[in-house]
Design brief:
- By secondary structure, the chain is of the alpha/beta class.
- Helix content is 26%, strand content 22%.
- It has a single domain, classed as Alpha-Beta Complex (Spore Coat Polysaccharide Biosynthesis Protein SpsA, Chain A), CATH 3.90.550.
- The chain is built from four helices and six strands, in the order βαβαβαβαββ.
């Protein structure tokens, strides 16, 4: 069995054959590579499985639901099958900048036990090129 990864990235998906490749590539091409990628297919009826099965990277784990359980069910399946101490989620129509995990993992790994979540800003971009940028903010609790 391969060593335990630092982070499990979970991508729940349903009928995202047109976008899942971009999402998977953005995880597998992270500058922080100590990860496993768990793609949970929630019983897609398109060719999502064909896109996923093209990958040979051993860090990618593919799980297919036999019955549709919804996005929450797919996330929970990913959590149950994860091996890492930390979990990150990515929607199957989104993608990450290449250094996202490299910046986030030290923050949570070097923090005290009171830190339960680390997040980053995001850029929302639509197919027509329009979009919005969410600035960095701090949440204190």
């Amino acid at each position: 069995m391969p060593p335990t990864p630092a982070v499990s990235v979970i991508i729940p998906t349903y009928n995202r054959a047109k976008t899942i490749e971009r999402a998977i590539d953005s995880v597998l091409n992270q500058t922080f590579s100590d990860l496993e990628l768990i793609v949970v297919d929630d019983c897609s009826t398109d060719f999502t499985v064909d896109v996923i099965k093209q990958y040979t990277d051993e860090r990618l784990i593919y799980i297919r639901h036999e019955n549709n359980r919804g996005e929450g069910g797919a996330r929970n399946t990913g959590i149950r099958n994860s091996r890492a101490k930390y979990i990150a989620f990515l929607d199957s129509d989104d993608e990450w900048f290449p250094n996202k995990l490299e910046k986030q993992m030290p923050v949570i790994q070097e923090s005290d036990s009171k830190v339960g979540i680390v997040y980053s800003h995001y850029i929302m971009q639509y197919e027509d090129g329009s979009g919005a940028h969410l600035e960095n903010t701090s949440i204190k609790g």
